[in-house]
Amino acid sequence: MTLTPHPSPSTVTTGTGLELAFRPLASADIEAVMALEKQVQSHPWRRSSYDDCLTGRHHCWLAEHQGQLVGFVVVTWAAGDAELLNIAVAPNRQRQGVGQALLELMLAQVKPFASMVFLEVRVSNHSAIAFYEREQFFELGQRPNYYPTARGREDALILARQL
Predict the structure, then answer these.
(1) Which end of the chain is more exposed for a tag (fewer CB within 10 A), N or C?
(2) Pick from 1, 19, 22, 2: which is nearest to 10 by CA?
């Protein structure tokens, strides 16, 4: 049996009134996704990680507003668990409901295949931790020296949410 994502809603309007269109990642989108990620991540992914989204190993959905990329989410799932691998929102669209809309889309996509969603987040990323806690994620533990930094390594919090 092949596990494939369910069709996603084509558009949603965030609580701030921003209309978003969702669609799966295509090969032609990878450069734009990488450029967006470079704006918000200190250590962005390599192209090969996004190529994995095209082969079905990971699943990636884009959020666009008026044809402009404003965010994306990457997830994988297997054996009843899902892992949020990456989520990013363009700096000029943060705190406008894009991250929440992407998270809700991802949760709806994985629910038929997983009962738990896991993620790692930098211990220093207080705004992301607060966001995930508002979205019913809870802390399971830490991974020491998980993330690279400009001066070494940083711990990650392991968070989870039951579906």
Answers:
(1) N
(2) 22
Q: Which of 37, 50, 64, 132 is catalytic?
A: 132
Assigned token pair, 61: 């959905």
Q: Is 120 noted as a catalytic residue in this protein?
A: yes
> What are the tens digits of pLDDT across the range 96-129?
999 999 999 999 999 999 999 999 999 999 999 9
Query: b or e along 50-80 (b: 16 or more beta carbons within 10 Å of the residue's beta carbon)?
Result: bebbeeeebbbbbbbbeeebbbbbbbbbeee
Other beta carbons within 10 Å of 157: 20
Residue 33: name the closest of 50, 19, 18 by CA. 50
Can you tell me the distance from the alpha carbon of 60 to that of 69, in angstroms, rounded to the nearest whole number?
13
Residue 147 known to be catalytic = no
Closest CA to 74 of 30, 39, 21: 30
Closest CA to 59 of 107, 20, 93, 96: 107
Which candidate in 120, 135, 146, 154 is catalytic? 120
Alpha-carbon gap, residue 163 to 146, rounded angstroms? 26
